[in-house]
Amino acid sequence: MKFKSLVAGAIAGATLLTSIGSAGALAPEPSGYDDLPDLLVSGGSDTTYRVNQEFDVVYNQAKGCETINGFPTTPAGNTRKCVGFDGSTTNPQTDIKGNWDHDVNSQLFPTGSSTGVKQLIAGELDMARSSRGPGSSGESTANFWAIGKDGLSVVTYGTRSPGNLTLAQIQGIYNCSITTWDQITGNPADAGQVIEPIGMNSASGTQATFRGFIGFDPNAGTCVKKVDTDGAGPAAAFFPFENDSKPVEASTTTINNINNAVWWMSWASFRAFPYLRGSAQQWTVNGIAPGSTTISNNTYPFTRFIFHVTKKVDATPSAAGSDDVWGATVAGSPAVYTPDASVASGGKPGAVREYTEFLCKNSANHTTNDYTGNSNFVELGNRYTLTGFIRVPAAERSNGVCKIFPAP
Amino acid sequence: MMKRVLGAAAVAGVLLLSLSVAAPAGAQGPTGTVNPNPVAFAPGQTEAPVTVNWSGQAPNKLIYVDICKKLSTDPTFNPGQDCAPLSSINPFATPTGSGTTAYTVFRGPDPSGDQPWGCFADADVAPAGIQKFTTCYVRVTNDSLFNNNQAADIPFTIVESGGVIPEAPVAILLPVVGALVLIGGFVFMRRQQALA
Question: What pTM did the predictor assign?
Answer without folding.
Answer: 0.83
